[in-house]
Write a structure and sequence with these properties.
The protein folds into two domains: 2-101 and 286-325, Rossmann fold, CATH 3.40.50; 103-278, Rossmann fold (3-Layer(aba) Sandwich), CATH 3.40.50.720. Helices cover 36% and strands 14% of the residues. It has helices at 16-24, 39-45, 61-66, 85-90, 103-118, 121-129, 153-162, 181-184, 192-198, 218-223, 241-249, 287-305, 316-325; strands spanning 2-5, 27-30, 51-54, 72-75, 94-96, 145-149, 169-173, 187-189, 201-204, 229-232, 255-258, 276-278. Helix 10 links the parallel strand 9 (201-204) and strand 10. The protein is globular. Belongs to the D-isomer specific 2-hydroxyacid dehydrogenase family. Keywords: NAD, Oxidoreductase. One of its GO terms (molecular function) is NAD binding.
């Protein structure tokens, strides 16, 4: 069998995933372009591989049509919007993922961004580097209303971490409200519009679907408090980047932190705003979590190579969800 590792970096901080592949005697190739691959790149590469260990590269129906030997996709991560699950199933391609591994790192980055935004640390840092001295008033987490949209693995961890800072008001929204969480946290389950209007800080933890694509545009951004902040560490495309730029350029919103983008690498207008924190899709990039993601994805590939049952195969609900999006 031949394995194509499309995600980069891979095996950089811990070589165990590569050693595991070497132990199976399969031939493997790591992304030769050393950047995020496009659909066109993949269409040229995939024809001779049985397994893809993938990041967020677009494994579309067109790519799968070129992958005549492909039998398995092992996702390094949780998001599945980059993989056409229905097309994969129709071709008999199994898909697995690592849903729990990235969550602690993404939640911690979210908390770091939250503190940075509420205290204008990012703006002060830039101004200091440019010879300016200005002391900003800010807000403490405990004295803020925090809105969390999407209360799954990562959203729940964010809520848990806010408790270390006191007892902020917590507004939450999810398609499937988990009212048992209210026993652990003092939560207010509300609609998204209430969060837009009342939160001092909003954090998004959602998959990208047709219903969440451009979920937050000018209308929603202008509903927010003038000094509110917004964080997106989930998926690019949920916040409309152009609308966010125009709204922030007008002076509405105190700040934003965006880790995920429609097109990556990103070089758009948000780079012009000093109060907008931009990070290079690095939510999962703590050494421990990234290593765990790579190991778990490789373990699944090795199981497949050895003819063993997969332990983290994508569940049926994800296929149903994508089917409904069509």
């Amino acid at each position: 069998m031949k394995v194509l590792i499309t995600t980069v970096p891979f095996g950089e901080k811990n070589t165990l995933p590569l050693e595991m592949l070497q132990g199976t005697k399969v031939e493997y190739v790591i992304n030769p372009l050393n950047r995020k691959l496009t659909e066109g790149d993949l269409m040229e590469m995939v024809h001779d591989y049985d397994i893809i260990i993938a990041g967020t590269e677009p494994i579309t129906e067109a790519v799968l049509e070129k992958a005549s030997k492909l039998k398995m996709i092992s996702r390094v991560g949780i998001g599945l919007d980059s993989v056409d699950l229905i097309a994969a199933r129709n071709r008999g391609v199994k898909v697995s993922y690592t849903p729990d591994a990235p969550a602690p790192a993404v939640a911690e980055l979210t908390m770091g961004l939250l503190i940075t935004l509420l205290r204008s640390v990012h703006v002060s840092n830039l101004q200091m580097h440019n010879g300016l001295w200005h002391r900003y008033f800010g807000k403490r987490i405990a004295d803020s209303t925090i809105g969390v949209i999407g209360v799954g693995r990562i959203g729940t961890r964010v809520l848990n971490r806010t408790r270390a800072f006191g007892t902020p008001r917590l507004l939450v929204n999810d398609l499937s409200p988990n009212h048992e969480l209210s026993r652990k946290f003092k939560l207010e389950w509300v609609d998204k519009e209430t969060i837009y209007r009342e939160a001092d800080a909003i954090s998004l933890h959602l998959p990208l679907t047709t219903s969440t694509k451009d979920m937050i545009k000018s209308k929603q951004l202008l509903m927010m408090k003038p000094d509110a902040v917004i964080i997106n560490t989930s998926r690019g495309g949920i916040v409309n980047e152009n609308d966010l730029y125009e709204v922030m350029k007008s002076g509405h919103l105190n700040g934003a932190a965006i880790d995920v983008f429609n097109d990556e690498p990103y070089s758009g207008n948000l780079t012009k705003l000093e109060n907008c924190i931009l990070t290079a899709h690095m939510g999962s990039m703590s050494v421990d979590c990234r290593t765990r993601m790579e190991i778990e994805a490789t373990e699944e590939a090795v199981r497949f190579i050895n003819g063993e049952a997969l332990e983290s195969e994508v569940p049926e609900i994800e296929y149903i969800s994508q089917q409904h999006e069509l």
